[in-house]
Design goal:
Length: 249
């Protein structure tokens, strides 16, 4: 059975001391029936790791370069993340694609490298508002999934989580309806079946992300093809994040 995973993407929020405090609060969330991951900024990772020690909370990062080391100012390697205590890394978030020139090609290179080093990848895909209005959501998602997963084996897929994040729903308060989210998550599962096989499709965790909050998480998480959430704003408030974790069974 595939895992339900609730992951908090802290984006560019929290200094190291603030991160330690928030992670310590989140570490108090007990009896989670799902996997819980927090993804703080790079400089916070060591502090957050220390704060969640002894809990079931897992640590993730928000990006990772494909080279092991070298002249890549501002980037970070998988080895660095692993030594900082990361098990997961988010790759291809729409904010990276929109603001930092991330392309399907670089997303693919990052994903391949992270998996080769043993990190689990939360791969983000999603359409913009214009693309949805133009009726090309499925075309966009299919392109992203095919290019981003190029060269990734069925075996490697055991360490890939897909996060469906419609760009128009991120940080806007505009959540996709449960039907809209389910439709695309189901479409993604169908693509994975096509690219790999039925077993890989059944086993792959597919999250929804975009304005997921305590008051809308239960209906989204109850949908058959939605196996968790990638949470932005609500992951920065312990009570809200705990409520979403509680809905993640
Ligand atoms: P919000 O939950 O703030 O909309 O952000 C979603 C997101 O981008 C998570 O990666």
């Amino acid at each position: 059975m595939r895992k339900t995973i609730i992951a908090g993407n802290w984006k560019m929020n929290k200094t190291p001391s603030e991160a330690a405090a928030l992670a310590a609060e989140i570490a108090q969330i007990k009896d989670a029936a799902c996997e819980v991951v927090i993804c703080p900024p790079f400089v916070d990772l060591f502090f957050a790791k220390k704060a969640i020690e002894g809990s079931n909370i897992k640590l993730g990062a928000q990006n990772c370069h494909w080279e092991t080391s070298g002249a890549f100012t501002g980037e970070i390697s998988a080895d660095m993340l692993i030594e900082a205590g990361c098990e997961y890394v988010i790759i291809g978030h729409s904010e990276r694609r929109q603001y930092f020139g991330e392309t399907d090609e670089t997303v693919n290179k990052r994903t391949v490298a992270a998996l080769a080093k043993g990190l689990k990848v939360i791969l983000c895909v999603g359409e913009t508002r214009d693309e949805r209005v133009d009726g090309i959501t499925e075309e966009v998602i299919a392109r992203q999934i095919k290019l981003d997963l190029k060269g990734i084996s069925a075996e490697d897929m055991a360490n890939v989580v897909i996060a469906y994040e419609p760009v128009w729903a991120i940080g806007t308060g505009l959540v996709a309806t449960k039907e809209q989210a389910e439709e695309v998550c189901g479409f993604i599962r169908g693509l994975i079946k096509e690219l790999y096989n039925a077993e890989v499709a059944e086993e792959t965790t597919i999250q929804y992300g975009g304005s997921m909050k305590p008051d809308n998480c239960a209906e989204l998480l109850a949908m058959p093809n939605i196996d968790g959430g990638l949470i932005g704003g609500a992951a920065l408030k312990t009570a809200d994040f705990a409520a979403i974790v509680a809905a993640g069974k």
